[in-house]
């Protein structure tokens, strides 16, 4: 069976070494940050800087810290990569947006 290759015109295709979990994590973290900030969240740089200290001891699965969005007035990880290690951004984007929507629906007390 022939493997489907990314479109030649695909701009900024994100490629990871599928044998290196740090490479996969870096691509996914970078994509999550891009997706979350595109939804109106502004990165809280203070918390990101503090996160560097947390990383020094233990990462605690933090990817990005944000402020709440400004309201207007009106899967497996490897399943999101091609065999060549290129991130299938559309699928991953959809997954992260679903998580954001679920987060927004949760009661504030648990946050």
From TrEMBL:
Identify the domain of life. Answer: Eukaryota
Say yes or no: keyword Membrane present: yes
Has keyword Membrane? yes
In the record, biological process GO terms are: protein targeting to ER; signal peptide processing
Compartments (UniProt record): Endoplasmic reticulum membrane
Membrane topology for this entry?
A: Multi-pass membrane protein
Q: What is the stated purpose of this protein?
A: Component of the signal peptidase complex (SPC) which catalyzes the cleavage of N-terminal signal sequences from nascent proteins as they are translocated into the lumen of the endoplasmic reticulum. Enhances the enzymatic activity of SPC and facilitates the interactions between different components of the translocation site.
Q: Which family does it belong to?
A: Belongs to the SPCS2 family.
Q: Which PANTHER family match?
A: MICROSOMAL SIGNAL PEPTIDASE 25 KDA SUBUNIT (PTHR13085), SIGNAL PEPTIDASE COMPLEX SUBUNIT 2 (PTHR13085:SF0)
Record-given protein name = Signal peptidase complex subunit 2
- Give the originating organism: Morella rubra
